[in-house]
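Appendix B, record 7
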Amino acid sequence: MGRFINPFTDFGFKHIFGREMDKDVLIEFLNDLLEGEHVIKDLRILNNERLPETEQGRKVIFDIHCETDKGERIIIEMQNREQPNFKDRALYYLSHSVVEQGVKGTWDYKLAAVYGVFFLNFTLDEENETGGNRIASGKGEKFRKDIILADRETGQVFNPKFRQIYIELPRFNKKEEECETDFERWIYVLKHMETLERMPFKARKAIFERLERIGSMANLTPQQRAQYEAEWKMYNDYYNTIDFAVEKGRKKAMEEGIEKGMEKGKRSIALNLKKMGLSMEQISEATGLSFEEIKALE
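Structure tokens (predicted):
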């Protein structure tokens, strides 16, 4: 266990971003995320549990749910485990924040903007990618997907009030000195935080000094440390299990490949011997194939 907490455990993520007393950290992160297009001056952390409107409905629990000084709703989620329908889940979560703005009686349907920010410890559309679930990609690969409602042909924004931002951590592979923007510096720190010996970028941006204090293991209370260590163990055990399963699968595939290659080689040799006129007994003795298998060769 390192000097800093792992921000992608449930405790670590909410300890850094989900506390009202340290909301300036969340504000700085969101402003760097939306740099050049939006400035958040203040926000409040909302109850992260949304109860269904009917008994048949499904309860939704967000990691972090907040409201800006302009009334915008922002849902921030950290997802470590790959899910086949995560895009649908994200859409479902954001839809809740849209629907709950409805007002009974006369209403003009004016909505506050809803943002979803999703940290992913896996890559989306993995079936179309090369490499495994946790393998880092090239330096130039796009790690942020910014989804808006726009005209399909022109790309012009149709309605700016529904936005999804996916941050695929395995795709971010820049070194400390290669980070060009404050947003990239955030992602570098968060991705490597658990293994850092020092907090970088403090001289460039004061919030990283604040992050150093909040994320330091030494500053946790005994109760906080016990909770974090329990969650860290589950997090670590999960990824060790995944890595073991992947390695076991690779070894099995290699073994099966060797076996198939040997089998194919034996059949090729047997066919050549058959063409040379050797007897069934001789071919079988040389290759180990049965008479039936030799007869079937053409």
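Remarks on this record: Residues 222-275 form the longest helix (54 residues). Residues 267 and 293 are 9 Å apart (CA to CA).
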